[in-house]
Amino acid sequence: MNPMDLTFSDDKPHDECGVFGVYAPSRDVARLTYFGLYALQHRGQESAGIATSDGRAAHAHKDMGLVSQVFNEANLRPLVGTHAIGHNRYSTTGSSHLRNAGPYLVETIHGPLGVAHNGNLTNALELRRRLLQRGVGLSSSSDSEVLTQVLAAPPEIWNEPGGASEETGPDVWVARLQAMMRVVEGAYSLTMLTNQGIFAARDPLGLRPLCLGEIDGGYVIASESCALQTVGARFMREVEPGEVLRIDQHGVTSTITRHSGKRALCIFEHVYFARPDTILEGQVIHEARQRAGRQLAREAPAAADIVVPVPDSSTPAAIGYSLESGIPYTEGLIKNRYIGRTFIQPDKELRKVGVQLKYNPLSANLRGKRVVMIDDSIVRGTTAGPLIQLLRDGGASEVHVRVSSPPVRHPCFMGVDMATRKGLIAHTLDVEQIRAHIGADSLAYLSLNGLLKATHGIEGAATEGVPHLANGQSSFCAACFSGRYPIPIPAWLFDDDRDKTVFEL
What we know:
The protein is α+β, with helices and mostly antiparallel strands and 505 residues long. The strands form 6 sheets. It has a 7-stranded antiparallel sheet with strand order 3-2-4-1-10-9-11. A 6-stranded antiparallel sheet has the order 5-6-7-8-12-13. Strands 17-20-21-22 form a 4-stranded parallel sheet, sandwiched between helices. Strand 20, helix 14 and strand 21 (398-403) form a beta-alpha-beta unit. The protein has 18 helices and 23 strands. The protein is globular, with a radius of gyration of 23 Å. The chain has 2 domains: 17-263, Glutamine Phosphoribosylpyrophosphate, subunit 1, domain 1, CATH 3.60.20; 269-494, Rossmann fold (3-Layer(aba) Sandwich). The longest helix has 15 residues, at 285-299.
């Protein structure tokens, strides 16, 4: 197949959401949340929303589009209060409609409740049915609304033994978060808003990231530490798996509600999702990606003249590959960084050359050169072929593709949009077949052990004898590469004919 016969589409996995929360009575919390969401824009581009509370009432605004498209001075002004939460969304469960946008805001017997959620609940369908059976009306197809309604209900309706009750617990909302953790399964990092303050919770495995920061006059919760820096907050720590935080006038109160005893942060945060300046599991993402590139050079050398990244997410790995191999690093593909998300779709003819809407070759650097093209991942296999052809059109004599992660062979059900096997090129084709499909002169991937070493901050070529890598044990979830899921996955979720709108009524 000629790679240029392919219709171009974004071949990167998409994270579901970015969440943000702030308690700072002396500050403009809506504006802080706006800039926090702006820093987390890479985690979701379909919709954005902010909810605030002044201790008496809640206020909210949300819409489809980027943060800069959704908010302006006029609609930020009514969002008054002492605390706020915010949400960027990319749909994994639930289709792309305004009714699925967060935060969700409902009225309860204890006042308003707002929820912003990052992740995916593997038992959302079961919980949805239980809510409907109890007469709870649902207006969307999102598992985030299911999570909100679980929190809005008294814990006793779930008939779950153990844990604090609303009557005896230290806080009604801490009690409800504890009850929620006993009934929901899957991945979730969330911020929650009530009239009393904000709350944060992270699933028992820590599958999705969440961190805590301190700001003049209060505290901040965010999916990534980069958002803390943007709003002038100081990074304190990551929220622990299974931890619940209550943030109010008394400061920060922590409760470890449920801990599995192991950690399983999504390894794709290190590969692609997180911003390079974010700190996760004590590692600066940029440094981890450079180490992955170095390890890739040791495992898969290439006879070439230059190293070229697929900008921008592959740049740190390409730098690492260059440093380790001694092959000069240079730009070969120029990215249109303003393309972003648009509501104007290209016509049929533009889709045929679609990759050129986003990239152009830099011929002066490519002409007559043997190129190592570094990519962070190949998921569907729709982008690599057109990019290789662009490099050849720009004058490259050879194009050798090196990928700084293993082949993606298995679907994800924990908040990443790669939920069926039929959409994963490595599930059906081996490496040589993928190479022929994309038209590369050679193709090689980083090994899983090599990636785990890079994410754990381990230097060197050998992977044997590393205690925490023995028998595949790690503090990361790498199920999309290995097929070993950290939690039980219902069999129906593996159905290739199931799409992500399965909950749509």
